Each structure stands twice: as C-alpha cells, then as structure tokens.
Amino acid sequence: MRGIGTEQTRVAKHVALHTILVLGAAMFALPFVWMVSTSLKWDREVFDNPANWFARLVPRLPYRVVRTPYVATLDTKDFTKPEPLHDLSWDLLKTRLEPRLWDAAQPILIKRQVPDSLRNELRYHLTRDLWHRLIAEKPDSLWNQPLNVIEADLASSVTLEKVNAGWELLYRAVRLASPTIQDTERIEYAVDHAEWMTQRGDARLVEAVGDIRQAEEVWADYRNAPKPPYATYFYTSFRLPLDAKDVRAITIPLHGDESYHHLTAVVELNGVMYQSDEPIVLENYTWQEVTLQLRGVKEPHERDNVVLNVSGRETEVVGARLARVTLTLHRANFFVGTARKFIRNYRDAATFVRFWRFVWNTVIVTALSIVAQLISCSLIAYGFARLKWPGRDAVFLLVLSTMMLPAQVTMIPVFLIMKWFGFYDTLTPLWIGSLFGSAFFIFLLRQFLLGIPRDLEEAAKIDGCGYFGIYWRIMLPLIKPALAAIAIFQFMGAWNDFLGPLVYVTSEEKMTLSLGLQLFQSMHGTEYGMLMAASAVMTLPVIVIFFFAQRYFIQGVTLTGLKG
After folding, report:
1. Which residues, in sequence order, are CB contacts of 84 under 8 Å at separation 6+?
2. Is the peptide bond between 229 and the residue preceding it cis, with omega within 30 degrees of 0?
C-alpha cells in the first residue's frame, strides 16, 4: 500500500510539473500567437469588442457568398438590454423595437433599391445595428422614462448618418462607376458617362440609387449559374479624351462586396487588346480605385494597380480615340476565399514597401555576420585556450574587460572610422565588425576548448599536424555545439539589429527588415494587420531556427566550462 501511495505521489508531481511547463510555454507563446492571428484579420476586426476573449483572438472566416448583393449577418449583434432598464419594461420594448426603428428608417431607405429576397433579412439586421448605434449615445436617464417616451426619442434619433453607416456595413454589393483616363504624366481625364452592360441572363445591372456616386449595381445569383466555374461579363465602351498612344492607364471606380471572388480585365484600345495577368479580388466592401495600367512601371506603393499586357490579337474596335473595357466576374469557392483573406496582409505588406529587398539585405548581413563571427572567435579562442605565448592571460583579461564598456561609448568613434573608410550608407558596417570577434563568444569558446583533452592535440602533432591543422581538423569538429550556440546568438542579434542600420543606412535600397519595419510603421502605422504580418515574417525565422537548433544550443551552453 505504501508503494502504491508513493507511485501516485510521483505521478501527481510529474503531471503537475508538466502542467506548469505547458502553461509557461503557452504564456510565452501568447504574444506570437496574437501577432499571427492579428496578421490574418482586417483592421476593423482588430478593434471589434466581442463578448469573449477567445473570439477576439481567432480571426473571422469570410462569408460564403452565393449571390450579390447580400447581407453581412455576422456584423451585427442582437438587441441588448440597457443596464438601467427594468426587465419587464425591456420585454415590452423589445417587441416594438424592430418595427419602430424600421419605420423610422424608411424615409431614408426609400430611395435605395433592394432585392425582394433580401428585404426581410436587411430589416432584421439593420434595425439591430441602429439600436446599438443609438444606445451608445443615450444617457442612462432616458431608460427611466415611460416606454412611449423612449420609443419616440429613439425614432427621432434615427438620422441619415446612422442609417447610411449601417447600410454600408451590412449591404454588400458589387458596383461599377464610370472610368477615368490617366495619361503618361499621370494626369486624370474624365470621360462621358460610360454605361456598364452585361451579356449574361443570370446577372443584371441596376442603377445604384442613393450611393455617393453614379454607378451600376450587380445583381447575380451564383447558385443559378449554368455551369461551374461561374463567370459573367460586364463591358463598357467610350470615347477617349486623348489619343490612345498617350493613355497610361484606365481607372475604374469599383465597390466590392467582400466576397473574395475576383475580376479579370480586358481593354481594347485602338485595335489592340490588353489583358490582365493578376486577379482583382473583391476583398473590400467600400469604394476603391482600380487602375488598369497599360504602360509604365508599377510602383511598389500602387497596391490597386493591375498591369495589363498586350495579347497580340486584333479587335473590332477601330479609331485612335475609342476604348472598350470588359470585366469578367469569377466566383471563388470558400477555401480559395479563406486563403485570399488570410494572405491579404502579407501580400500588401510585400507590396507597399520593398519588403523582399529588406529581407534580402537582412539575410546577407546576418549570414556574413555569422560566418565572420564563427571564424574570428574560434581562431582567437583557440589561441587563448591551446597556445602558450607571453602575456596570454593578461590579454585575455583585457578582452574580457571590453564587455564592461557600453556600446554608446564607442558608437561615435566607430561611426567616424566607418565613414572615413567610405562604408557609410552601405551594408558593410553592419557585419564587418564581426571579423574582430566578440568578447563573450571568445570566452564561451575558450571555456569549451579548455575541456578538450590534450592527448588529442599531442597525437595530432606526432602525426605531423600543425597548429592550423589541429584547429581545423581536431578542434572545430569537437566544438560544434558551442559554435551552434554562437551562431544562434549572432543570428538573433544581426537579424533583429535596429540601431546599426539606423546609424549607418540612409537609403531605402539598403535597409534591413528592422529598419524597414520602422519605415513601414511610419507610413502605415494604423494598419495593424499589415504591420503584424510584416512583424511575423521577421520573427518566424528566429523561432524556426531556435526550434530546430535548440539541442545544439542547450548542449553548447551547458558544456561550456566543463573540463574532461
């Protein structure tokens, strides 16, 4: 019985220890999980305030859009009771809220066209959206009034601004407005109203009444498509305000529906057909300007530019001032839409700034720093640990004393030296210092080398091996764990270094990831999804390398200073 009790105690301690370790690992991993989850969200998701914290952490999946327009049902919450209102009064008021708020909104909504199949669904969600907008500004004293007074106050507070805000949030539709022309000097020219038309019977265009601009709205039911994959066509023809040879791009105002379906574009200009190679994803539910670029180079910050290439086919459009634009709407399945939503911030982060140039610069600096540090520190440590020469211990003490010297003290002298050599605004100052070693790494390797038996060195000398041969053939293979630990330390230091690039680099062409992220934050600091996506790309290599090399890292640190 005593043995059983001891075994149970041992198991309980074992479980408790592992539980503590798992909880500790989860706590330290939580910031990275939050960063990755934020990188998968829209910015408006980041500022949502759901009822439970887990819902705030998990990114929202896109809607399964089977028709356009549709109602965004997940963007509203049900009626909630104001805290000062009595339960009985709330039960009576709740039954009257939907018809009362809907009637109050009708004079504003009367100009808008809505498919009959969506009217009841829109009524349900729009009235609840209005309710939450209204109670956010009402004082607590209102809920102590009689119900008829409360209802009258709520109805009178339904304004054009609140109804339009709820409409824009809930009513998702694809709309197309009249294009504009951009010349080679990037000057915009308006064209006469170009009406959009369609050739398919399963989709139609209606006038978007009440919108901020004159546009046609797409009404289509993808479930009635003749065959997969669903595709429908919209086209418009117009006369150019300038010669075709001077047209750089055609800009199309496009209102998306956040369906993550996509459009492809074909432009027929002066008998030549231009076709897009990349999709125009309907990932927004607001207006955006999509630029179909025919000539010139796409700038990194021009996210909404779509480059068109000449297809080489003749068209029926003739004349130097005639143009025709055809947009094809393709339906994407739920899995493709989800993938497009989750990679959106990563794609935009790589588009807005020269992200991959920053990555390449960081890789170069990090690789050169690691190689230089390993070679220089191992050679110096070998000299301190295995060779006997006058003043060795005193020099080693001097090397260790440099660890007490703050980096701020040497920053200006080192900067002047680098500038005198012509290394300013280059990547050289970020890694060349590693050629002179690090006092900490030298100490680490020296302690490791002291633990290697002298017999191996003596045997190598008998076989005719010189000092460098002993270092290369005997010592380096034996100190691999310590070298791996140093490589990890140096990788994290060089990869995350911000002060060095800030001091020595001025041009965007030579920036590293850490400095590039600061530039990105200054330009798009409020776009947290893209900022977290760029930060995740910067953090992930450090985690991956440490995960796969942790055995060497731990072995290199624990064996340092042990003598055999």
Report:
1. 140, 143, 144
2. yes
3-state secondary structure 412-461: HHHHHHHHHCCCCCCCHHHCHHHHHCCHHHHHHHHHHHHCCCHHHHHHHH
What φ, ψ does residue 86 adopt, rounded to 5°?
-70, 150
Q: How far is CA 163 from CA 98, 107, 130, 546, in A?
A: 14, 10, 7, 53
Region 360-389: mean pLDDT is 92
Mean pLDDT of 354-360: 84
C-alpha–C-alpha distance, residues 545 and 496, integer Å: 14
Interstrand relation of 247-255 and 175-177 (parallel, antiparallel or unpaired)? antiparallel
Instruction: Give the mean pLDDT of 432-437.
Output: 90
Angle, helix 513-524 to helix 355-386, in steps of 10 degrees: 150
- Any idea which of 254-258, 312-316, 401-405, 508-512 has the lowest mean pLDDT? 312-316
Tell me: the pLDDT tens digits for 268-292?
887 788 888 788 999 888 898 898 8
Distance of CA 114 to the CA centre of its chain: 35
Task: Classify 69 in phi/psi space as left (phi over 0), alpha (psi -120 to 50) or beta.
Answer: beta
Q: Between the CA of residue 75 and those of 117, 426, 562, what are the distances in Å?
A: 19, 49, 62
Lowest mean pLDDT segment, chosen from 132-141, 222-231, 419-428:
222-231
Quote the CA–CA distance of 481 and 486 in Å, as a whole number. Answer: 9
Three-state SS string over 289-305 comes to: EEEEECCCCCCCCCCCE
Q: Give this prediction's pTM.
A: 0.76
- pLDDT tens digits, 521-553: 777 666 788 888 888 888 888 777 777 766 666
DSSP H helices, 308-429, are: 334-352, 355-386, 392-401, 407-420
Reference 410, options 503, 282, 507; nearest CA is 503
181 conformational bin, left if phi > 0, alpha if psi -120 to 50, beta if neither:
beta
How many Å apart are CA 138 and CA 153, to the nearest integer?
A: 10
CA–CA gap between residue 219 and residue 68 (Å, rounded):
5
Q: Which of 241-245, 374-378, 447-451 has the highest mean predicted lDDT (pLDDT)?
A: 374-378
Q: Mean pLDDT throughout 314-329? A: 71
Amino acid at 188: E
* Rounded CA separation 255/258 (Å): 9
User: Most distant CA pair in the chain: distance in Å?
Assistant: 106
| Cβ 263 vs Cβ 326: under 8 Å | no
